[in-house]
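Quick start: read one record
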Amino acid sequence: MNISLKALGIAALVGLPGCMTVEQEREMTGALVGGGLGLVSAKVLGADNDWAVVSTLAGAAAGALVARNRANNTCAYANGDGTYYRAPCR
């Protein structure tokens, strides 16, 4: 039973990217990298397990959003008065 669950998990990981667009792959990669960085920074700073989960989820969300903005080629720029505007990335 345990071997069949592992085989199913590996098959899903191998087959999943074939069903995704390039933008979705970028978002998934951004989420994985952001989540990994969030987890590593929480552990380096000595956070307990609850904060490690929170920082991992926050990093994953931020990574996915950064990847999504790169797919649209839009960036946020500061106006200098505390507000921001979106424009094509320079």
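The two ends are 53 Å apart (CA to CA).
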